[in-house]
# Entry
Amino acid sequence: MNTFSNKLKIFNDPIYGFVSIPYEIIYDLIDHPYFQRLRRIKQLGLTNLVYPGALHTRFHHAMGAMHLMGQAIEVLKSKNHTITEEEAKGVTIAILLHDIGHGPFSHALEHSIVSNINHEDISELLMSRLNVEFKGELGLAIRIFQNKYKKKFLHQLVSSQLDMDRLDYLKRDSFFTGVSEGVISSDRIIKMLNVVNDELAIEAKGIYSIEKFIIARRLMYWQVYLHKTVLSAENLLVNILTRAKELAEKKEELFCTPQLKTFLYNKYSKNDFITKPELLDTFARLDDYDIMASIKVWADHSDKVLSMLCKQLVNRELFKVELQKAPFKEEKTQPICAEVKKRLKLSDREVKYFVFSGTVANDAYRADKIHINILSKDGSVSDITEASDQLNVDVLAKTVKKYYLCYPK
# Structure
């Protein structure tokens, strides 16, 4: 009895106040090294270079999403939807572990050091490993996570256009960045949750909260997640890791933590993660600290390109960024390349690390994917873009694409 009571801890969250751990296994999973690693991975990567308060971690976010899941389960059960204790436990585990496979600095590694495997793949592999350790107790959670369980609305609580993941990160990221445009009424949205034909729906009286949610998501993408200075910093980090990988392939000696060295000096595929258990354990010890410790040392490396890039990141001397709605033409980029190449004494191959372009897309709501269903009083269900009397919701449902150009100031 004492062990049971001891595991049902209460912790203090800056967003929700006191939050309870609902099951013993949740405590054990939180206590596992795989999950504790999330304390050392920032939720918003390098966004703190723009918003200094954005230092919260994926650990914070996972715990918050778990709390919201508990609220959602209680609301749905109160509306006579059957959710068994095992299903409640399974979906709570699924949301707790949904980000467990994230690498350092969000998606930077997926674009530079590892290839053909994303954080969702690694999350599934880590969950499978944990399932073995916990003697099959995660089986239902994994099926819900993979959308292979018979009750599809449980998966939608974990991953959809209105899941507990999004409800938490919008509110949490808004709080820690200080960007008030991202504030949403997660309490109101969860209270309005319902299920129709095995799909989540929002009761019609909650429609304005959903409109606000979509607008908040749109604004947070442009103001925080796709902020041009954040883009500059993240691309600088990707270029640092890409250059380091290039030097590693030439057998150049680079300071690395043992975990980072494994991935920097070798090429691994998704199949390698499956067939080599030790590789997954190595990844599970890789965090933001490995990357930043190495970058600080690389700032004094003999390779001029790597050294310059690292100094720029460490000292926050970020690239200038231009954003526009159309691709950048050669007559714009070529003179910049020539000037940077001459000023920094770079070769044609090296200048690509300092002058580059790309695209970003903002799709706050995708009506062509999973719908946000609105449940009317007469029992009919319609998509938010049809049910809303706000004309801008349909406009907000359109994907906006922008092109960026980065180069030294």
Summary: The longest strand covers residues 400-407.
